[in-house]
Write a structure and sequence with these properties.
The longest helix is centred in the N-terminal third of the chain and has 12 residues, at 25-36. This protein is an alpha/beta fold. It is 26% helix and 27% strand. The two termini are 35 Å apart. The protein folds into two domains: 7-82 and 188-197, D-Maltodextrin-Binding Protein, domain 2, CATH 3.40.190; 84-187, D-Maltodextrin-Binding Protein, domain 2, CATH 3.40.190.10. Strands 1, 2, 3, 4, 7, 8 and 9 form a seven-stranded mixed beta sheet that branches.
């Protein structure tokens, strides 16, 4: 056994990622590419959410972060690694659950169940603006996380927007996911780094 330290282990890539996204195909492919690429590196993955992950990259506590949605900060550079279709998550007892696709106008009067804006301001604004661009300005019911939002939707408190990979990998009893009729709404999956780190 060599006494030399493994350079991949000595200089790991510190990656932040929401725990609910870690098993998504695009994320596992990205981590494998970093781990097994031309210059293999050990990857240390830590959990976090939107704004907290971006703050950790800014302050150099993380080298990279994986986030959903746009990143509106010139000190950070984002690279899209995937595009996730957005689905409507709604209680299986709701009349709209019987539809194969849900038209956006049919959600009028329903609450959008969403994480608090300070958790991820740009993603929050993205979700509300894409609905507004299609004529829907729902009342917001705040829940602390994506899982809590989907659980509240299953309880019939409103609807949530859910990336397709999350819907496929983390089903919740009493919840159905439906495509949006006539509109291919998507959200980007981005890898973010400090702009001065190339």
């Amino acid at each position: 056994m060599s006494d030399e330290a493994d350079p991949a282990a000595c200089n790991p890539v510190r990656l932040g990622c929401p725990s609910y996204m870690r098993s998504w195909p695009a994320i596992t492919r990205f981590v494998d590419q970093v781990r097994d690429g031309a210059a293999p590196r050990h990857v240390e993955v830590s959990n976090g959410l939107g704004a907290a992950l971006l703050d950790a990259v800014r302050s150099q506590r993380l080298d990279l972060a994986i986030v959903l949605g746009p990143v509106g900060d010139p000190s950070l550079t984002s690279t899209r690694i995937a595009e996730e279709p957005l689905l409507i998550a709604i209680s299986d007892g709701h009349p709209l659950a019987a539809l194969a696709e849900i038209p956006i106008p049919s959600l009028e009067g329903e609450s959008l169940i969403l994480f608090p804006r300070d958790v991820n301001p740009t993603l929050y604004d993205y979700y509300t603006s894409i609905l507004a661009n299609h004529g829907l300005r729902p009342t917001i019911l705040a829940e602390p996380s994506s899982e809590a939002s989907r659980t509240a939707a299953a309880a019939g408190l409103g609807f949530a927007l859910t990336p397709a990979s999350l819907a496929a990998q983390a089903p919740i009893a009493g919840l159905v996911h439906r495509p949006i009729a006539g509109h291919a709404l998507v959200v980007d999956v981005n890898v973010v780094r400090r702009s001065d780190r190339g």
